[in-house]
Design brief:
With 221 residues, the protein is mainly alpha-helical. It has a domain of 106 residues: Rossmann fold (3-Layer(aba) Sandwich). The protein has a three-stranded antiparallel β-sheet with strand order 1-2-3. A hairpin with a 7-residue loop joins strand 2 and strand 3. The chain is rod-shaped. The termini are far apart.
Amino acid sequence: MNKRESYATKIQELGALPPPAEREAFANKSLSELMKLLEAVNKKLKKYSHVNKKAYDQYVNFSEQRDSLLKRKEELDQGASKVKELVESLDRQKDEAINRTFRGVSAHFKDVFKELVPLGAGELIMRTSIDEDTDGEDDEDREPGSPEAQAKKKKAYDPNNPDVSLYRGVGVKVRFSAVGENFMMSQLSGGQKALVALALIFAIQRCDPAPFYIFDELVSY
């Protein structure tokens, strides 16, 4: 029993047994020949004494870190996709709110202006970057009713598929008589501008009642 345990210990120290093919290759060699071969192998192994013995442990550790980082990247990619979907949803809601508010104020502006000027008519128009590109200058001093201008305007402001990124501001087109020319704000007198401003404020009040409003960067063309 003691011998068996001793031999078992020596076998464990030797490590795993070689495959049968290798054992058969050295089965017919004498002990002295085997010792010479072992000495030659040990000399070759000495050449690799400077090899980092912790390399395997480091490789395993870094592999685990890599797998962890790849998993984290996948989670971040999924999170980025959800954030992108949220931003797109908020952009759609913002665009819908802008167009809904403009349509509401525009409809109330027509009614209020008609009440203030029974024989006249007023309309809010959405100014877009297409207007600026096609005119090359302030188009409110020019005739806005040309077929080309109306076609480009319809393309820029499509109620079914509006492109809010093209919006540059809101303009006003009014007339103060049953038959007559439509005027832009830059063509009106001081009193007429004041009346249009009141009509706009009352229209906003009807669309979204509030105790007060703040108008930022108002420009009268």
